[in-house]
Design brief:
The complex is a heterodimer. By secondary structure, chain A is an all-alpha fold. Chain A is built from four helices and no strands. Helix content of chain A is 79%, strand content 0%. In chain A, helix 2 runs antiparallel to helix 3. In chain B, strands 2-1-3-4-5 form a five-stranded parallel beta sheet, with helices on both faces. Chain B has a five-stranded mixed beta sheet with strand order 7-8-6-9-10, sandwiched between helices. Classes of the chains: A mainly alpha, B alpha+beta.
C-alpha cells in the first residue's frame, strides 16, 4: 500500500467515525420523547459515516502532486455531492428535480467555488512573493 | 602459352622426353631432370611454378623427394611449390598417400595431353590464389609491410633459429601530425616511414607494422649499440626530410622514430620474451630523449634511478614535448577535456572560441585546403602558449583561452583573422566564429562542485552550477545541463545529497531544480504551479514543496546580500 493510499484510508476511517458521531448527535437532538431506534435510524447514522469518510478521505486529492487546485477541488466535490444526494434521498427529504435539490446543488457548487477561489488567491499571493524573491536573488 | 615455369622429374628418359615435349610450347619455361637429387639442387636455386614428380625412381623415390623439397622450402622461407605426382602404377594406396602428404594432384601414365595440361593449370592457379590470399591476410595494405599476423607467422621462427635483433619502432609525436594536418597526412607519413624502413634494411630482414605508428622488425645485421645508433640516426634524418617534403619547410613537429631492441640469442630465443624486452627498451627511449635507439639490458642504470634532479628534468621534458614553442597548445580531444575540467575547478574565467573556415559555392578544393592550413597556423601563432586549441573537424577549430573576458577575446579574434589574411589570398573562403565566455570557479565552494554521472561506460563530470534540473523518467535519472541531457542509473536522493547546500531545491518527488536557473514562477488557471527556466523549459511544482522553495530563495537572497 502506498503512502497516499494509507493516508486516504486513515482519513476515511476518521471521517467515518466523525460522520457517525454527527449522525448520532442529530438523531438524539431531533428525537422526541417517544423516540425509537429503528433500522432507518441505523441507516441514517451509517450514511452520515460514509459521507464523513468520503469528505475526509477525498481531501487527499489535494495531496496528488501533479493535480492542480481545480482538479483536486472537483475530485473532492463530486463524491461528496453524490454522498449528500444519497443521504438526503434515503432520509426522504431530498428528491431529485425538486426545488430543494437545485438549491442544494447550487449551494454546494458555490461553496466549492469559494474554496477553490480562496485557495487560488492564496497560492497566487505566494507565487508573487516567490517571483519577488527570485528577482531580488538575481539582482 | 602461359608465363609459368614447370619442372618435370622422371628417371625414365623416354617418359621425360615425352612429358617435356608435351609441355613445351604451353608454358614459358620447362626443365626436365632425371632424379630427386637433381630436383633439389635446382629448387635451391630456382623457384618453379609447378613440379611434375614421378613416384617410382631409384635412390630417392618421389615421396622422399617431396618431403625433402618441403624441408628445403621451409628453410628458405619460400611458399610451397605445387607438386603433381606422376605414376605408371594403378595403386590407390599410393595415390591416397601422395594426396595426404600434400600433393596438388596425382596423375597416372599414360596421360591424356589435354587433361594433363588442364590439371597443371588448375594446380598453378590454385597455388597462386592461395598465395595471393595469404599475402592479403598478412600484409598491411597501407604500407605494404607485413601486418601483425604476418609478422607472428614469420618472426618467431627467425627468433628461434637466427641471430640478429628484434626491434620495436615507434614514431615520436606522430599524433600531432594527425591533429594538425589531418589523418590523410598521417597516412602519408606512415607510408614515408615504411619506405625509409625498407630502404634502411637489407634484404632478408623482416619488417612489419603492428598497428598505428608502431612497427616491428627482425634485423639480421644489427647487433651492436653503435649499429643501432647509426640506424636510428639515418632513419630520423630521412624521416625529417620526408616530413618536410610532405608538409612543407615550415613544418616543425618534432617527429622522429624511437627504436627498442632485444638481441638474439643474448636475450633468449622466445619470441614473446624478446617482444617484451624490445618493448621495454623502446619504453626507455620514449621516456628519455626519443629519436634514438636502445638495446635491452636487464640491469637498470642505478645512477639514473637515484638522481631525482635528472628524473624531474626528464619528466618536465616529456611534459614540454608536445608543445610547439611559441604557439598555443594542441593537446588533442582528450587533452583539451582535461584542461577544461582543470579550468572549471581552478580558473576564474575563460573564453571559448569556435572558428569555422567556411567554403563558398565557387571555391576550389585546394584553396579551401590551403585556407584551413593557413588558418591553423595563424590561430596557433596568434594565441598564447597557455591557450589550448582543438581541430574538431576539417575547418573547425575550438580554442579555450583561460583568464580572458569576451571583450579581450574579440581583440584576439581580430588578431587571428588578420594573421590569417596576411598568410595569403583565400578566394571563396570565409571564417565565421562564435565567442562565448565561460564562467568558471569562484572563491566560494559552490561553483567547484561537480556531479559525476555515469553516461554509458564513461563518467562525465558536470559542473553543478550548470545543471538546470534533475528528474526521474522511466526509472532513469535525467540531468539537464546547457551541454545536453545526461542519463544515469543513480537515484535522485543521491544527487540531492551531492548537491548539498547549493541553490538546488526539490520541487516534487521526481525532480530537483537549480533555483538560479529559474526565470519565473507562475500559477495556471487550473491552479497548477509552474516553473519557467531561463532556457525556455518549464515544469510543474508540487504544492507541498513550495514552503521549502520559499525558504531556500530567502536563504539564497540573504546569503547574496551577506556576500555583497
Amino acid at each position: 500500500m502506498t503512502k497516499f493510499q494509507k493516508k486516504a484510508l486513515i482519513l476515511s476511517s476518521i471521517g467515518f467515525v466523525i460522520g457517525c458521531a454527527i449522525g448520532i448527535f442529530i438523531f438524539i437532538a431531533t428525537a422526541g420523547e417517544d423516540f425509537r431506534f429503528s433500522q432507518m435510524s441505523l441507516a441514517e447514522i451509517l450514511i452520515g459515516g460514509i459521507y464523513g469518510a468520503l469528505g475526509m478521505g477525498g481531501s487527499v486529492s489535494y495531496d496528488v502532486e501533479q493535480w492542480g487546485l481545480l482538479r483536486a477541488t472537483l475530485t473532492h466535490l463530486i463524491p461528496a455531492l453524490i454522498a449528500f444526494y444519497l443521504m438526503g434521498y434515503l432520509q426522504g427529504w431530498l428528491m431529485p428535480g425538486s426545488t430543494l435539490f437545485w438549491i442544494m446543488t447550487v449551494a454546494w457548487l458555490l461553496v466549492y467555488a469559494a474554496i477553490w477561489l480562496t485557495m487560488y488567491l492564496g497560492w497566487r499571493r505566494k507565487i508573487r512573493k516567490m517571483n519577488e524573491e527570485l528577482k531580488a536573488l538575481k539582482k | 602459352m602461359t608465363d609459368n615455369y614447370v619442372i618435370v622429374v622422371d628417371d625414365d628418359a623416354d617418359s621425360l622426353a615425352g612429358a617435356k615435349g608435351l609441355l613445351e610450347g604451353q608454358f614459358s619455361k620447362v626443365r626436365a631432370v632425371r632424379s630427386g637429387a637433381d630436383l633439389l639442387k635446382l629448387a635451391a636455386k630456382q623457384d618453379p611454378d609447378l613440379i611434375l614428380l614421378d613416384i617410382m625412381m631409384p635412390e630417392m623415390d618421389g615421396f622422399e623427394t617431396f618431403r625433402r623439397l618441403r624441408e628445403l622450402e621451409k628453410e628458405m622461407g619460400r611458399t610451397p611449390t605445387p607438386v603433381i605426382f606422376l605414376t605408371g602404377e594403378n595403386d590407390s594406396v599410393s595415390e591416397q598417400h601422395g594426396l595426404t602428404i600434400g600433393a596438388s594432384d596425382y596423375i597416372r601414365k599414360p596421360f591424356n595431353r589435354e587433361i594433363l595440361l588442364r590439371r597443371i593449370q588448375n594446380a598453378i592457379q590454385s597455388a597462386k590464389m592461395i598465395e595471393n590470399l595469404t599475402e592479403e591476410v598478412n600484409v598491411d595494405k597501407m604500407t605494404g609491410l607485413l601486418n601483425k599476423a604476418g609478422a607472428a607467422g614469420k618472426i618467431p621462427g627467425l627468433c628461434a633459429e637466427e641471430e640478429g635483433t628484434l626491434a620495436m619502432l615507434d614514431l615520436d609525436n606522430f599524433k600531432l601530425v594527425n591533429d594538425l594536418y589531418g589523418h590523410e597526412m598521417g597516412d602519408g607519413v606512415l607510408k614515408a616511414f615504411a619506405r625509409i624502413l625498407r630502404d634502411s634494411s637489407p634484404e632478408g630482414d623482416v619488417l612489419c607494422r603492428i598497428g598505428g605508428d608502431e612497427f616491428m622488425a627482425f634485423f639480421r645485421r644489427i647487433y651492436h649499440k653503435k649499429e643501432a645508433d647509426e640506424l636510428a640516426k639515418t632513419m630520423n634524418e630521412n624521416m625529417a626530410k620526408a616530413c618536410r617534403e610532405l608538409m612543407g619547410e615550415s613544418f616543425d613537429i618534432p617527429i622522429g622514430v624511437s627504436l627498442g631492441m632485444a638481441r638474439i640469442p643474448e636475450c633468449g630465443r622466445c619470441y614473446d620474451d624478446l617482444f617484451r624486452f624490445a618493448d621495454a627498451a623502446l619504453y626507455q627511449v620514449k621516456q628519455g630523449s626519443k629519436h634514438s635507439a636502445a638495446i635491452y639490458s636487464p640491469e637498470p642504470s642505478p645512477e639514473k634511478e637515484d638522481d631525482l634532479g635528472s628524473e624531474m628534468q626528464r619528466l618536465t621534458q616529456i611534459l614540454k614535448e608536445r608543445n610547439r614553442p611559441g604557439t598555443a597548445m594542441w593537446p588533442g580531444q582528450e587533452g583539451i577535456t582535461w584542461i577544461y575540467r582543470f579550468l572549471c575547478r581552478y580558473a576564474n574565467e575563460a573564453v571559448k572560441l569556435l572558428f569555422f573556415v567556411k567554403r563558398e559555392e565557387d571555391a576550389k578544393q585546394e584553396d579551401v585546403a590551403a585556407a584551413i592550413r593557413d588558418f591553423s597556423e595563424a590561430l596557433g601563432s596568434s594565441l598564447r602558449e597557455s591557450d589550448a586549441i582543438l581541430q574538431s573537424r576539417p575547418g573547425q577549430f575550438f580554442a579555450l583561452l583561460p583568464d580572458l573576458t569576451e571583450k579581450d577575446a574579440e581583440m584576439i579574434v581580430q588578431r587571428v583573422l588578420k594573421n590569417w589574411e596576411e598568410r595569403g589570398n583565400h578566394p571563396g573562403v570565409k571564417v565565421e566564429y562564435l565567442c562565448e565566455s565561460q564562467e568558471l570557479a569562484s572563491p566560494g565552494g559552490e561553483d567547484r562542485t561537480h556531479i559525476a554521472v555515469y553516461e554509458g561506460r564513461k563518467i562525465v563530470f558536470i559542473s553543478a552550477k550548470d545543471i538546470l534540473r534533475i528528474y526521474t523518467e522511466n526509472r532513469k535519472l535525467c540531468i539537464i545541463s546547457p551541454s545536453g541531457k545526461y542519463e544515469s542509473r543513480s537515484t535522485l536522493r543521491e544527487f540531492e545529497d551531492q548537491l548539498g547546500q547549493l541553490s538546488f531545491v526539490r520541487i516534487s518527488r521526481f525532480e530537483i531544480v537549480n533555483l538560479r536557473k529559474i526565470r519565473s514562477f507562475d500559477l495556471s488557471i487550473t491552479g497548477t504551479i509552474r516553473i519557467y527556466f531561463e532556457n525556455g523549459e518549464d515544469t510543474w511544482v508540487a504544492r507541498r514543496y513550495v514552503k521549502e522553495i520559499q525558504n531556500r530563495l530567502e536563504d539564497l537572497r540573504k546569503g547574496g546580500e551577506g556576500n555583497d
